[in-house]
């Protein structure tokens, strides 16, 4: 565990086990040098504890990098709750999780993530002040979707093989949850052609009816011939050994940790597929949650989310000038902010 913490530069891991409620939770704080860590709480069925720890560490690191590149004065952290086999009392479990968050004294602010809802955040907020995405503040997903839209627009501008505007573009969206569905609505409004997929057939049907979307099987969506693939389901969908089967020209979506491994980013680069890094593109919800807590207006929040477009364009320009994969350029830009510009040289040394 310490080896993994050292490798990822995760500073703290906190564990909570409560037999009364069945709560088994992990909070990973990756970096708090720029402010309290703000990151979602994932409620998920893990095969074992190692998998849950690994997920918490990877997700927390992504939050530090995301906040740094979004220019948000927040650290990176994430919580995972191992979904119990039988959940007796959801409210009691999330109340206890709130106490766990509270015990960190404000160094971690929790938020919604896969498997948690605004209702859960309300429950957590009954036992700690350090919760966002409650019914008072709202679901950040529409803001995440808006950020992804900016990332997609930037990819269209940056990639010469792609149409100039959304009205002529074909976007394949994987996952029609809180973010994916809102994204489809925005894309449809701008006239994009959509192909969609979800394991939940009701969501697919709704997308077909409301946005005239074409439908692909969940196993086929990433192989669809399209301009941009937008992964908005779970992470790990881009695997190095299957990149040669992809028929998109760019990838820009909300799912955290889309690249199964670092090699997957290199494989995309070799294949000539532009990758708009997940933690750059999906920062809209974080920007919203952070700035809302600081009392900023919605006009200011929308302005800051639009910065995602400029960041993706900047990454693409650097990629054109130095030929490096966008995934590595983004990591380096974030590490310069978090650790100073000597960090890369020290690592290489
Ligand atoms: P969600 O749980 O509401 O939606 C996920 C959707 O993906 C569900 O509809 C699910 O059925 C579908 N799905 C799961 N496996 C699939 C598969 N194999 N093929 C097709 N569909 C599949 O989650 P969300 O809040 O919409 O978040 C989506 C992704 O974006 C997650 O990876 C999340 O971590 C990331 N993210 C979300 C936010 C946010 O504001 N909600 C912010 C940043 C990142």
Any overview of this molecule?
The protein has helices at residues 2-8, 49-70, 90-102, 118-125, 141-158, 178-189, 201-211, 262-271, 278-281, 284-293, 298-322, 326-339, 343-348; strands at 12-18, 23-31, 37-44, 76-82, 108-112, 170-174, 193-197, 214-215, 228-231, 250-251, 274-275. Strands 8-7-6-9-10-11 form a six-stranded parallel sheet, sandwiched between helices. Strands 1-2-4-3-5 form a five-stranded mixed sheet, sandwiched between helices. It has two domains: 2-125, Leucine Dehydrogenase, chain A, domain 1 (Rossmann fold), CATH 3.40.50.10860; 141-336, 3-Layer(aba) Sandwich (Rossmann fold), CATH 3.40.50. With 349 residues, the chain is α/β, with parallel strands linked by helices. The model has no long low-confidence stretch (mean pLDDT 94). The protein is 46% helix and 16% strand. α8 links the parallel β10 (250-251) and β11. Residues 113-114, 140-141, 144, 174-180, 197-200, 203, 218, 232-235, 254-256, 282, 285 line the site of nicotinamide-adenine-dinucleotide.
